[in-house]
Design goal:
Layout (H helix, E strand, L loop, with lengths): L7 H12 L5 H8 L3 H13 L19 E9 L4 H11 L5 E6 L6 E7 L2 H10 L7 E8 L17
Antiparallel strand pairs: 1-3, 1-4, 2-3
Helix pairs in contact: 1-2, 2-3
């Protein structure tokens, strides 16, 4: 995505929406000191340009049987462009994989995986993760405590 020319008002809108995705347009307009129509137009532009990618509810993971977290380091047997694309496409189909990041260093990917418990993870590892395209080896690290897990992005003040 190309760098967009966002102004101070855009950043104020983004901060408010990030803090409360259900904020009404009337309240958002008031908080960013715009009238409703220009504010709504800015929000639509930010959505169209892909700056605002969507809206969601923050859920309590344990309440929906997703309280167990592991980090999985994945090493692939091959890292050609086609093989990476195949792995990436397959990972996107696994709902328990909350994030997948390509890494530089001693392994190729880091996965954040959420399941109900260790037994559920063990089944997922054996039946799904280890069978993803081109997986050569995995290393699993069980998360004992989540100290910080933000989805809110820090944004600099802009002119």
């Amino acid at each position: 995505m190309a760098q967009l020319d966002l102004d101070r008002t855009d950043y104020r809108i983004l901060r408010e929406i990030q803090a409360n995705g259900r904020i009404s347009m009337v309240e958002l307009s008031r908080r960013v000191n715009l009238t409703k129509t220009p504010c709504a137009e800015r929000v639509k532009r930010l959505e169209k340009e892909g700056v605002i990618k969507g809206y969601f509810a923050a859920l309590e993971p344990a309440a929906v049987d997703a309280g167990h977290i592991v980090i999985v380091q994945v090493q692939l047997s091959s890292t050609t462009a086609a093989d990476l694309d195949e792995f990436n496409s397959a990972v996107r189909q696994v709902p328990e994989i909350q994030s997948c990041m390509m890494m530089a260093g001693g392994f190729d990917y880091s996965l954040k995986v959420r399941t109900r418990d260790i037994a559920s993870y063990r089944e997922l590892l054996g039946n799904v993760i280890s069978r993803l395209p081109h997986v050569l080896q995995t290393h699993t690290y069980v998360v004992m405590e989540v100290v910080k897990d933000e989805v809110v992005l820090s944004m600099p003040d802009r002119p």
